[in-house]
Amino acid sequence: MGLLAVLDEAVATLKAPLGEDDRAQGWTDDLRREVQAEISINRSVLRRHGLGMARHLRPRLDEWMEHEGVQPGRLRDLVGDVQRSLVEARTMTAELPADLGFRRPPPVHA
Q1: Which of 15, 59, 71, 89 allows an S-S link to 54, with CB 3.0 to 4.6 Å?
Q2: For residue 47, what pLDDT is reported?
Q3: Taking CA 43 as the corner, what is the angle to CA 37 and CA 46, rounded to the nearest 5 degrees?
Q4: Torsion angles phi and psi, residue 46, rounded to 5
Q5: What is the dihedral sign for C-alpha 77, 83, 86, 91?
Q6: Distances (CA, A) of 37 to 41, 42, 97
Q7: pLDDT confidence of residue 71
Q8: CA-to-CA distance for 74 and 21, rounded, in angstroms?
Q9: Percent helix / strand / coil, the chain, rounded to 5
Q10: Comparing C-alpha atoms, which of 4, 6, 68 is closest to residue 32?
Q11: CB-based contacts of 4, cutoff 8 Å, min separation 6
Q12: Residues in the chain where the model's pLDDT stays below 70
């Protein structure tokens, strides 16, 4: 599954209301919304400016989940997948030329 697909899946899943198991694992509605928004912002940046922007993202979702005391479970696994995917993309794009992956706007006169 590609990076954007992983982000799409996470955003869609995190938009849904929390279940009892999720709450028992430490999730709150506010945390769910905040994590969903963070992932959504990263997804928008990558869609708008290209996957080369991954080199500039500094995902710290794992630290966030740890700080919030979120226990292992489906949502933490999902957020972990997002974290791993962003780190892998960042590593892969770090070795590419600086302008690769960026979409330049068309000329004004075009």
Answers
A1: 89
A2: 92
A3: 145
A4: -70, -40
A5: negative
A6: 6, 9, 29
A7: 97
A8: 9
A9: 65, 0, 35
A10: 68
A11: 43, 46, 47, 51
A12: 94-110
Place of tokens 């994590």: 35
Q: Kindly state the tokens that stand for 25.
A: 């694992």
d(CA 71, CA 100): 38
pLDDT value at residue 90: 86
Query: How far is it, in rounded angstroms, from Cα 32 to Cα 82?
Result: 14
Report which residue type is found at 10.
A
Residue in the structure block whose two tokens are 């279940």: 19
CA distance 109 to 7: 35
CB atoms within 10 A of CB 18: 16
CA distances from 36 to 14, 42, 75 (A): 6, 10, 11
